Amino acid sequence: MRGAAPPMKGLALAPRLPVAFAGTVGLLDLAGGDVGVVICEPWGYEAQCARRALRVLSDRLSALGCPVLRYDQPGSGDALASAADIGGLAPFDAALASACETLLRDTRATRVVLVGLGLGAALCLRHAGAHPDTVAGLVLLAPPAKGRMWLRELQARAVMIGEVTGSAPAPGPGEALRIAGLPMSDALAAELRALDLTALDQMPACPVLALAREGRAAEGTLCETLAAATGGEAGIMTGYDELMTDPTGSLVPEADYSRVLSWVQSLLPQAAGVAPVTTDGAPVLPAARLAGPSFTETLCLFGPQETMVGVWCAPADPDPQALPVILLNAGGNPRAGWARGGVELARALAASGVPSFRFDIADIGDSRPLPGGPEVVHYHAGLPAQLSAAIDLCQAMGGGDRVVVTGNCGGAYLALNGALSDTRIAHVVAVNLQRFLWDPRDDVAEVLRFGHSSASEYGRKLFDPSKWKRVLAGKSDPLGILRSLAVRAWRQGERRLAPWLFGLAPFSRLYRKVHANLAALSLRGVAIVLVFSEGDPGLVQLDTFFGEGWKRLAAYPNIDVVMIPDADHNLTPEAARLALREQVIGAALAESMSEAAGAQPAA
Predict the structure, then answer these.
(1) Average pLDDT, the chain
(2) CA-angle at 168, arms to 166 and 172, nearest 5°
(3) Amino acid 502: pLDDT
């Protein structure tokens, strides 16, 4: 389990500006150099895994004196279009061209280095061929040599993720595949099958650093050919697999980044040295806004030193009685959400007249770590202060002083416990809550790694040869798994006795604290909806704290429990996200509906 990325020695974080172009948004790191960098992210699920790591790379490149622009690919992140509506590579090419134009127009840079990962590397290579005069260099990380092979890998990975989550990757009409709930259209897949970077008409006119994934012969050959033809370098990207583990467990590829930074620095003017990070002469740009039929979205920086990043989604036709909704991260998923569920929910809320604010907590997604922040940010005691900062912004945008807060898993924990510390939270929709309170004896990193797997699942893995190969290769921690199972067994007995130990044991004291917290929220009138996927591990919490049949829930009339059938922990199926949408819209419009019902004449 990763912690905070180790900072570069003497790293000075550049100020950032939100920007919007070509139907998408990005962040422009300002520095005074003549050579800028545009980072072109991969497609879909890979972009979700790599978001935090690419933010770390952006910070380190700007510390070299390079202005840096990162942006969301069309159909991904906070971009306007849905993934299913992207019918070819043209929107990706147009977005990259617009990103380069934006960086060259709004900074002192006169040339750009393009850094691409996965499909982003292929896009960068295509752009360099069409714009030889402005591209100073290419960094290609895991470039897909042949689109057909890359698509086969993507389909295999979609099946693997479906097995892990319990949600089969079933494509819809007009879709070639779905991975982690993210669709790819038949039309885009057709263009990608025809993509062949090994058959380029001409080589780039700039030097290339090309790093292939280990064991991919075609990728390796492509990288060596590009390096030899351009006087560049080729090698292996050693950290790719750890980078793409999943959004929460993703690791920054430190060795690869060191090579990238050294190589980019070699392209900078030797006499200039490191250009100072400064806001002197910084452009005054219009607000980074995107508009849809029923909403306008604004990319915002907020919090201490504008560390955090979020999106305010304002409805075109607001309901004056609606409470704004704050959407929280689940695990390490960026604010767009698993399967872009956060974006979908925000725009559906806007269509119902409800404003919302989705944001990344510190050191997740685009938000930088706070000075002196924890190595593992999940479940940290300082998170309610970040939620309060988001509510401050919500108020400043005209959202009023009462809000609804919703989140999944770790976001559900923050929503519930944030309501204890911030009285502006009037309603909580907590999805697949795993803990009412964190047991200080538990290691957060270990629980995040092992917490959603049952003992029976680990038992099955004992007889899986592929799992033993990982153990023998040093890629799995069998002792950690056994230790986790032993602790679980001990704690299970402690939980069963908690109501009758009167605070004499550690978990018994935590048990009493949970009920004291829930009583305080009930007294304050905070409405709470606990939403669970059927069979979710978090349901054990209800048995633990409310007893058999959840009888002790009767003491809290402000709490409702809602079950979503045929759903996994992440709410991958579209029907599950629609069910959640109904709950959140209902919470936001509760006062409007109550007022409307009260105005109706009696029968």
Answers:
(1) 89
(2) 145
(3) 56
